[in-house]
């Protein structure tokens, strides 16, 4: 997002080139997730399972990236990407759910950034724990609202911060990969090949890592979200694919080389950010400090990028009259303040909820991924819909992307599906507000069916939490 904000600063009406859009995708994708990958993968799988998981995730997400590439060209009339495709293909209510789900996933994802920062500092300040103590939540809340007021002033300050973050995001990760390869222990790597006893079957190992791969790939659709600012529609698709391919190698490398430094059981017990602990085992304390400092700067930049993106989704949806009108307001500096405020409020609510979770970071990470799956599935299904009857590459790609996202819903499991319903169902209030502003009937007969399903899922989720069938 570095160059994006710079261009907005220079001229709010400026159009984004393929280079700036690619930077947007890379900036959105490289964030907190990559620093947490070693522990998350080691908790679920060995080297063989990790390689298969990355092959599945890489292929599936590449298909999804191709879907966004083709839709940007085939339907240039649709802006805001994920949300617009769901609306065009399946109606206003599911389009609304897609917009809300994508927005909510960005807000919940922002919680992982604050948890990870506090967990990092918690290594020297035990009162912060793993980022899930009362003190950690209070300090995170202070940072949360400080960023709100920073962004509210306009993009000038945001652009200055992002210029620093661009380097801070990539350098520690590349240094980690190079050093890990230099210190790699072949015997340790071989011992980790099949996975530890707790990992289960190979299928279970792969399935257990799927939500983590979704989380780190969030942002692949970043150029599509900002498509209304693109200089040429073709640039949106090119940037999506280039950005994806650029970071895929980084994500997979971080995971695989870690297995060559420590037994996976020990990696699984590391505090987050686990990348710091893995590097410390190889080079000593300075490795942990190096990664930790880079992480804090990187995560703050990622938080900034995703906050802006979340507000953009609400703003565009309100402009299309699918959200209440108050969310379509913006300042002279092109900052959608009401959308920004609502995004900050939801992040604050989920941040407090982490106090009641068993593992704050993993809970926020998995919920972020689960909330994103419905928007992704609807976008992929829309691509199938518009290519149906035209047998060829476009239909194959769209079908593979749909199957992949459907598999991810299965991999997420009932727990996160029900928690997602708890988040989705109350959002209908915003949909009803928008319909009433337009003097329209709130729901059509078909939309009433969707409403009943979402409410039933939310009620079941609340009951399951209350009775202890599922937990946060």
Name some characteristics of this structure.
472 residues; mainly alpha; 76% helix; 0% strand
Q: Which SSEs are present, and which pair or pack?
A:
Elements: H1 2-10, H2 18-29, H3 32-42, H4 47-74, H5 82-90, H6 92-121, H7 134-152, H8 155-183, H9 186-191, H10 202-217, H11 222-225, H12 233-258, H13 264-268, H14 274-283, H15 285-319, H16 337-353, H17 360-387, H18 393-424, H19 428-437, H20 445-467
Helix pairs in contact: 1-8, 2-12, 2-15, 3-10, 3-12, 3-14, 4-10, 4-12, 4-17, 4-18, 5-6, 5-17, 6-7, 6-15, 6-16, 6-17, 7-16, 8-12, 8-14, 8-15, 10-17, 14-15, 15-16, 17-18, 18-20
How many distinct beta strands? 0
Task: Please give the share of residues in helix.
Answer: over 70%
Annotation field: number of helices: 20
- Topology pattern, helix = H, strand = E: HHHHHHHHHHHHHHHHHHHH
Strand content: under 5%
Low-pLDDT residue spans? 1-13, 156-160
Round the mean pLDDT to the nearest integer and report it: 79
Describe the structure.
This protein is mainly alpha-helical. It is built from 20 helices and no strands. The protein has helices at residues 2-10, 18-29, 32-42, 47-74, 82-90, 92-121, 134-152, 155-183, 186-191, 202-217, 222-225, 233-258, 264-268, 274-283, 285-319, 337-353, 360-387, 393-424, 428-437, 445-467. Helix 8 packs across helix 15 (285-319) and helix 17 (360-387) packs across helix 18 (393-424).
What is shown here, in short?
By secondary structure, the chain is mostly helical. It has helices at 2-10, 18-29, 32-42, 47-74, 82-90, 92-121, 134-152, 155-183, 186-191, 202-217, 222-225, 233-258, 264-268, 274-283, 285-319, 337-353, 360-387, 393-424, 428-437, 445-467.
